[in-house]
Amino acid sequence: MAASSAYKRLHNLGAKSILKSKKLKEFFVSNAVNHANFASYFRSHSSLSQNSRYGSRYINTKHMCQLVNSNDKRMFIVDTYALVRSLEAQGFPPKQAEVLTGAITKVLNDSLESVAYFFVTKPEMHSYEVTRESSLATFKTEIQSSQEHHFSLLQRETEKLQDHIEKLRCELKYAVDKVTAGQKLDLNLERGRIRDELHNQSTETSKLTNKLDKEIHALRAQLESQKAEVLKYCTGTLVAISAVGIAMARILLMP
């Protein structure tokens, strides 16, 4: 892919005579497989950019060739010196080799810029992960705070309901006690009234009993007196009859 991009870039630069060279085409074909090495470079590109002040630890600058303009400060990812010498060894003139190396380097840098545009570096990924973890922690904190807030509201509502239920229970107990006390008072009053009525009835019954007893005694005494008189009259009658009989007998017995 890099070889075809370099081929098109050279075509845009106007190097048609160079592109017609069979050696150049063979060079692009033979070096097309090296494009896979650019991915591994990109993975370490972030470390390289972070440690650019220690460039001697990551890139051997002795093998780099500055074939760009004086105002271009980018560092090559290709050993341009070795590439120029390789092109010269395959029969290219030094000027064409330098032009090809510059074009290939520019294409590779543009490709890396395009890749860097669509992908992120490790620091950016780490920053994104830190931001995401911070957002998750903030979200978790908000959720916990919301849960605690709702739990406290629910607890307060529960306490209010419990207080209201306790108040209703006390009012109901007071009403029941009041009704019970009223009923007890009514029952006591009714019991007292019934007791008084029974006492009055008992008194009246006692009076009637005493009166009946007196009347019975009076009737008994009257009967006894009447009996004595009847016996007296009967005795007188018998005596009179006896006297008459005796008199009649004397009269009849006289000669």
UniProtKB/TrEMBL annotation:
<protein>
    <submittedName>
        <fullName>Uncharacterized protein</fullName>
    </submittedName>
</protein>
<dbReference type="GO" id="GO:0016020">
    <property type="term" value="C:membrane"/>
</dbReference>
<keyword id="KW-0175">Coiled coil</keyword>
<keyword id="KW-0812">Transmembrane</keyword>
<keyword id="KW-1133">Transmembrane helix</keyword>
<dbReference type="Pfam" id="PF07798">
    <property type="entry name" value="CCDC90-like"/>
</dbReference>
<dbReference type="InterPro" id="IPR024461">
    <property type="entry name" value="CCDC90-like"/>
</dbReference>
<keyword id="KW-0472">Membrane</keyword>
<feature type="transmembrane region" description="Helical">
    <location>
        <begin position="230"/>
        <end position="253"/>
    </location>
</feature>
<keyword id="KW-0496">Mitochondrion</keyword>
<dbReference type="GO" id="GO:0005739">
    <property type="term" value="C:mitochondrion"/>
</dbReference>
